[in-house]
């Protein structure tokens, strides 16, 4: 069993427990549930913004601890002050070290689009995302079926959220070419092996639907790489580890964005 399948099986069990503890009726009572969402695609696709989706995460299965004691309030406020277009918040506790309040803390202190980054296998998690204050959710093509992605996307839209559909292979892009997702992501990390190659985004760029926001994910660590991705049609750049592995992630984000503004 590869790591993605291990995560999926764990997530299914985790969600079943969450349903028992926090039924949907309770999630719907959240102070964030009726709040209007901030448009992920408008902010990230705005040519006057940086296109940087700055990610908050403490660890990963491939790297172990990255920034174990990072504070979501300090880091996310710093990201937005640095000029990030949006935030991505990892909410998986077991594999990525998230804490329950991470996304809601980011929501309380920032007016910007917030992407819930997790391994979504159940409609419950989409309702939960809205209750936490998310504006958008990530769906992973490798993890769930075409029909599940269609149904999950419809539910997210019903709740006012947008969807970033993550793909990694040519087949995944082709299988979802008619998707109603608001943005298409190309993950440069192979979720089976965790090997990373930015060339993957460049190779698949021309296949992405022309009307959709295009996001490159993983392995982005220089202005040269961002310039190359922009030249191949990408609008947004999801960056996590490059920022989070530093003692001051927001300062590293500001350094990159300042360089980007000079280009």
TrEMBL record:
SUPFAM superfamilies per the UniProt record, alphabetical: Ribulose-phoshate binding barrel (SSF51366)
Protein source organism: Planktosalinus lacus
Pfam family, one: IGPS
Record carries keyword Ion transport: no
Superkingdom assignment: Bacteria
Record-linked InterPro entries: Aldolase_TIM, Indole-3-glycerol_P_synth, Indole-3-glycerol_P_synth_dom, Indole-3-GlycerolPSynthase_CS, RibuloseP-bd_barrel
EC number: 4.1.1.48
Domain Indole-3-glycerol phosphate synthase: 4-256
GO biological process per UniProt: L-tryptophan biosynthetic process
The UniProt record lists the keyword Glycosyltransferase: no
Annotated metabolic or biological route of this protein: Amino-acid biosynthesis; L-tryptophan biosynthesis; L-tryptophan from chorismate: step 4/5
Protein name: indole-3-glycerol-phosphate synthase
Catalytic activity field: 1-(2-carboxyphenylamino)-1-deoxy-D-ribulose 5-phosphate + H(+) = (1S,2R)-1-C-(indol-3-yl)glycerol 3-phosphate + CO2 + H2O
Enzyme class name: lyase
């Amino acid at each position: 069993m590869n790591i993605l399948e291990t995560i999926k099986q764990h997530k299914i069990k985790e969600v079943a427990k969450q349903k028992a503890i926090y039924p949907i009726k309770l999630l719907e009572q959240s102070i964030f549930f009726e709040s209007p969402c901030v448009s992920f695609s408008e902010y990230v696709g705005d040519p006057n913004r940086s296109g940087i989706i700055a990610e908050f995460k403490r660890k990963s299965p491939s790297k172990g601890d990255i920034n174990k004691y990072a504070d979501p309030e300090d880091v996310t406020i710093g990201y937005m002050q640095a000029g990030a277009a949006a935030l991505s918040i990892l909410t998986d506790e077991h594999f990525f070290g998230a804490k329950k309040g991470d996304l809601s803390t980011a929501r309380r202190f920032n007016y910007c689009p917030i992407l819930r980054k997790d391994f979504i296998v159940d409609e419950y998690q989409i309702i939960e995302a809205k209750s936490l204050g998310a504006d958008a959710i990530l769906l992973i093509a490798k993890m769930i079926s075409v029909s599940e992605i269609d149904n999950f996307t419809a539910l997210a839209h019903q709740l006012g959220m947008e969807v970033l559909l993550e793909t990694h292979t040519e087949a995944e892009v082709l299988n979802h070419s008619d998707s109603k997702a608001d943005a298409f992501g190309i993950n440069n990390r192979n979720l089976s092996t965790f090997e990373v190659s930015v060339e993957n985004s460049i190779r698949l760029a021309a296949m992405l639907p022309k009307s959709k926001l295009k996001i490159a994910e993983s392995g982005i660590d220089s202005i040269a790489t961002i310039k190359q991705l922009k030249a191949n049609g990408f609008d947004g750049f999801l960056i996590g580890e490059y920022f989070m592995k530093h003692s001051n992630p927001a300062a590293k984000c500001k350094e990159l964005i300042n360089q980007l503004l000079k280009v």
